[in-house]
Input
Amino acid sequence: MAPVEPDLNNSNILPIAAFLTQILLVIGLTATVLHTIRRAARTLPPTSSTRLQQLHRSRDVVIFSILALTSLTVISYFSVEWRRLSYLGWAHSKKYNVPNNLWRGWYGSGDAGVRLRLGAWMKDVNLRREADMIAVKSPSGFLWTHQQFIALVTNSIFIGIEGQRRNLPTATIVSFVLLSQISALSFAQNLFFIVMLFTPVPLYSMLPPRRDPLWTPRPAVYWIPASMSFIFLHLMPMMVGYPWDMPFLTVGYFAVPIFLARAGQQILPTSWGHTHKDSRSAHRSMISVFYTIGVFSTFLHFKQLAFAFMDTTPPAKYTDYDYVWDMHRGGERSLFERGSIAIQRLLSTIGDHPAISVTSWDVLLSAISLCMWAFTRRLNVDEMLDCSILSYFSGSKNKDEKVEKHVSFEAESKPTVNSVSPSVSPAKKTRGRPKKGGRTSVDTSSLRSLRRSTRHQAAKHESDSEESFKPSVNMSEEIAKTEHDDDGHGEEDLIAEGEAAALALGLYSIGGLGPLIASVLGAEVGGRQDR
Output
């Protein structure tokens, strides 16, 4: 009898290998990030390692570590559950018995036993296509998908800017972007926050700077690819099912974030950017990028939210079955009842399907991390408003004008006024012969005042020489290039921290994750160096 060739299509080796490859890739990227965190923690300068700074840094690291582990656990659970339900649905449609089922499972042995048919399942079911149909085709599911993609693009820009500022290795920057694409956005986001806590100064001791720290790309380099990717994303519900939908999805989801993260490094020519005179102007130039993303994402969220409400709102008239009278009866819903049902259905989409739960929980956990970051870093409310659609209510412009007037007023030279010493009244003459070799009180006092004035003049001359000291050109350039975050919290201002967190939560409730991540990360990029 001839040997029977094995059916490679029904083999479980290929699906298990693909799943293990994704797990090993996430582990490898996480190991690269953790190695950078370890080296950064070892190279902290003494000025950033005081007892108070270490106390606050340890607290913040614990907070974001817990958020990162929570995100990884939740997203991993729903990812496995999504694949499990997909296999069960396929097995049910093919009339296959499912093992390890308590009530309907088959527990035969030998040839009658039940085994997994993962190879045939992967051949018949395209998981990526199935996820697109669930998360993109449905308006309520696409409400979470577009928030995650906008946050992914914005977070990639932030990783590139802060990675260049802190002189992180290129492999680490790319690892963060790949982690946010392959595993979870919130997981990579929390890990990057931990890296920022351990790198208050650039890592010049680890690697030489790849580019001038005062050079930044022009804002159009960032917001033109980001805006085009957002527009193509909102065209995806109409493109799903056509042959060209997967190339658009691949380029928009993988290529654009990596390009935006590497835009501030050596891949762009120098003519595409601008070299600023100091670090403040270099950082403030990036606010327009986050402002554009925040405003654009707000309008897109309003558009998608309206479509989702239209999809989940029930009709005004309905027909219901009356079990008492055993008959159908008609009814009419009020506007408030229709709106409440639409909101209930919209919120219930978080747990309708694991494919949507992966995206929705990632968005929610990312929003929690951003609110915690705004709270722990005490971000300026005006700087957060500058990067949002509510920039009209920001008072930072008036504040900058006052600072400029104050600086110009202080820079004016003040006229020196010569102080006139008070006249000394002559001493009263006394009877008798003056003592031999003695001095009168007038001479003594004048001599003491002369000695004191000589001493004061010397001290004043030294202080004037110190005030008139001007650093050299090389020293001024080094000072301008030096970065140092304010890790010392001092007395915790709970009011300021609460205002930043409350504003972040309000922006999320208004426009979703897009305005939230643009305002928080924009305030971190543009205003953190001023505190």
In short: The first helix runs from residue 13 to 42. Strands lie at 215-217, 273-275, 317-322, 327-332.
